[in-house]
């Protein structure tokens, strides 16, 4: 795998997530960001209110704000600040909130953001079962968004992994994407989830607390979610899905659609670009992409281990510290919900 070093960083003019990795020295703060192709730059200006001549000033303002936050004693490179600005359509206030939420999530959710060594057995099991978020190679031709496909196959063993293990790996992949994939940052992403073979034994994990935490994670990441399609969802999980939607904003909820098994062949025929070939589409192969992303995540091992320290220090927050209990409350179960 070709390495892109700091000296080459500014020269990158195309999305680099498939076959390269930006190698950053964690002790060095970058004062640079990637150049993107002219057509993507025009899209950023149109969709995200990006003004090229103001980028450096906006980044500087964000750095100055971060330096004044005692609970955010974190060095953030210019490229990631630009990503956050783009996600928030260059609203400085929204970007501040996104920065705070992202690093707070890393602090209050250790089950997702700690122990992210790609060689841990439970993480290797997920790669080998091919039940991970797979960014498909071709963009949606309609709007340029990145398509991410998750296939919950029967090889996912509830005795070896939990849904939180799966979340951990998926957000490791997203952490790479938000640092490398300019198309996804600017044009957004579409999530396709195939649930037909998901074991019902995972249902006990889908508590209201789990759902609240998951929604918080989605909001914490600098992502522009354009659509969610849940395909072949078994009835018990369909109920859980309906509960999950109640925790989302109305805007996101409207973009979440379930597709029944009888409608899948027609959807694949009409939109083959949304699916890998194993589902009847023409956008890559689950088998090949699983191997590609296993190697990709493993190549980031040192970065994940070093990045674990980057989180908010709630003991130093000038306002009352944020805790998981304050943000999410106590846990509950579906049995209680059904009785109530």
UniProtKB/TrEMBL annotation:
Pfam families on file: CRAL_TRIO
PROSITE patterns: CRAL_TRIO
Protein name: CRAL-TRIO domain-containing protein
InterPro entries found in the cross-reference section: CRAL-TRIO_dom, CRAL-TRIO_dom_sf, CRAL/TRIO_N_dom_sf
Domain of life: Eukaryota
GO cellular component terms given for this protein: membrane
Domain CRAL-TRIO: 142-287
GO terms assigned for molecular function: phosphatidylinositol bisphosphate binding
């Amino acid at each position: 795998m070709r390495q892109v070093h700091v000296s080459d960083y500014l020269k990158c003019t195309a999305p680099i997530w498939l076959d390269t990795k930006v190698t950053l020295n964690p002790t060095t703060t970058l004062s640079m960001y990637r150049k993107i192709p002219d057509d993507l730059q025009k899209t950023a200006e149109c969709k995200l209110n990006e003004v090229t001549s103001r980028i450096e000033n906006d980044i500087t303002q964000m750095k100055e704000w971060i330096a004044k936050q005692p609970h955010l004693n974190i060095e953030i490179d210019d490229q990631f600040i630009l990503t956050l600005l783009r996600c928030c359509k260059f609203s400085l206030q929204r970007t501040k909130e996104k920065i705070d939420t992202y690093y707070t999530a890393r602090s209050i959710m250790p089950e997702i953001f700690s122990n992210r060594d790609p060689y841990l057995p439970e993480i290797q099991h997920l790669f080998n079962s091919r039940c991970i978020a797979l960014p498909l190679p071709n963009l949606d031709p309609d709007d340029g968004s990145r398509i991410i496909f998750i296939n919950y196959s029967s090889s996912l063993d509830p005795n070896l992994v939990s849904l939180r293990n799966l979340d951990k790996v998926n957000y490791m992949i997203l952490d790479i994407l938000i640092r490398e994939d300019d198309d996804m940052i600017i044009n957004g992403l579409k999530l396709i989830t195939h649930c037909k073979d998901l074991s019902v034994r995972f249902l006990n994990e889908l508590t209201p607390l789990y759902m609240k935490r998951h929604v918080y994670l989605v909001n914490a990441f600098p992502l522009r979610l354009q659509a969610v399609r849940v395909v072949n969802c078994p009835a018990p999980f369909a109920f859980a899905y309906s509960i999950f939607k109640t925790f989302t904003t109305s805007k996101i909820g409207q973009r979440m659609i379930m597709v029944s098994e009888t409608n899948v062949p027609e959807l694949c025929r009409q939109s083959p670009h949304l699916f890998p070939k194993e589902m009847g589409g023409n956008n890559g192969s689950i088998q090949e992409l699983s191997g590609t992303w296993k190697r990709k995540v493993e190549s980031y091992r040192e970065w994940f281990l070093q990045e674990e320290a980057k989180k908010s220090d709630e003991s130093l927050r000038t306002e009352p510290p944020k805790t998981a209990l304050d943000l999410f409350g106590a846990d509950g179960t579906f049995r209680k919900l059904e009785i109530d």
